[in-house]
Write a structure and sequence with these properties.
This protein is of the alpha+beta class and about 300 residues long. The chain is built from 8 helices and 9 strands. The radius of gyration is 54 Å and the shape is rod-shaped.
């Protein structure tokens, strides 16, 4: 191949490379800026096919989606001077792509993944500082349940104000995944909690026994009153019956005294001789056998 034929081939190859390097694509999940001689000339490019000057312009792409980053677990002091292990995560996205590329990209990172890792390293200390300040003003109960939502909202607002200004990062939300005692105090805390629950259980059992005794005493008192009233009514009815029976016997005796005496003797015989083994020792001439000896009863 002669130099005369090689030069057009090289020129064609150069033109092909320049043409391929003149166009670039920004995807829907990306945000991008265009640099020319290390200066940003276009920012927040929309998703589309774009033109650039080859070998002069450089396209910096970043992830434009909402990202989730887990914070490393940290220990924080509450207002009661008690340590708590807190695990949290941050939801964030790039808001000002020019500032984001300027600040995070100057750390020697050009790829979206590397810039994302650097951005997370910048977020960590600010989120941890916000959590530390808020937890230090509250008790354990408030951090765990009482004001947990307020803590997260306040930290999110404060950190977002800093990161928007410094890095062009919008902090959408900060959430706590887990709050626990440190390993060195967890056993003591659980022992104290068990002791408190045991005291509560003993108090509840004592209150239950006291309530049961009151109920039993009230029931026994009510039973005694009911039995006394029933006995009184029964005695009154029995007394009225006995009086009525005595009245009938008296009337009957007045009508025929002899027959009444005979009837009473028959009842006495029936009660005395109702069993073969009954034995009665009386004088033969006693009054008891008068109706057996004399049919006339005289």
């Amino acid at each position: 191949m002669t130099p005369r034929t090689l030069i057009p081939l090289v020129a064609a190859l150069f033109l092909l490379i320049a043409a391929l390097n003149s166009f670039y694509i920004v995807n829907e999940t990306q945000r991008a800026v265009l640099k020319r001689f290390a200066q940003i000339v276009e920012t927040d490019l929309p998703p589309a096919l774009h033109f650039k000057f080859p070998f002069v312009d450089e396209v910096i792409r970043v992830d434009g989606r909402t990202l989730v980053h887990d914070l490393p677990g940290e220990s924080y002091l509450t207002g009661e001077k008690k340590l708590l292990d807190v695990n949290a995560f941050v939801i964030w996205r790039v808001s000002d792509v020019e500032r984001y590329v300027t600040v995070v990209g100057d750390m020697g990172a050009a790829s979206p993944d590397r810039m994302r890792m650097n951005a997370q390293q910048l977020l960590n200390p600010r989120v941890e500082e916000g959590l530390r300040n808020e937890i230090a003003d509250r008790t354990v109960e408030e951090v765990v349940s009482g004001e947990r939502e307020d803590v997260m909202d306040t930290v999110t607002e404060d950190v977002n104000a800093l990161t928007m200004q410094d890095f062009g990062i919008e902090v959408v939300d900060i959430r706590v995944k887990q709050v626990d005692w440190p390993d060195e105090v967890r056993d003591r805390v659980y022992d104290r909690m068990r002791a408190e629950r045991s005291r509560d259980a003993a108090r509840h059992r004592s209150q239950g026994r006291e309530a049961a005794e009151r109920i039993e005493a009230a029931a026994e008192r009510e039973r005694t009153v009911l039995m006394a009233e029933a006995f009184r009514e029964a005695e009154e009815i029995r007394g009225e019956g006995d009086a009525r029976a005595a009245e009938i016997y008296a009337d009957f005796y007045e009508v025929n005294p002899d027959f009444y005496s005979f009837h009473r003797s028959l009842q006495a015989y029936r009660e005395s001789f109702k069993d073969r083994s009954d034995v009665l020792l009386l004088e033969p001439d006693g009054e008891f056998f008068r109706y057996l000896k004399d049919s006339g009863g005289r």
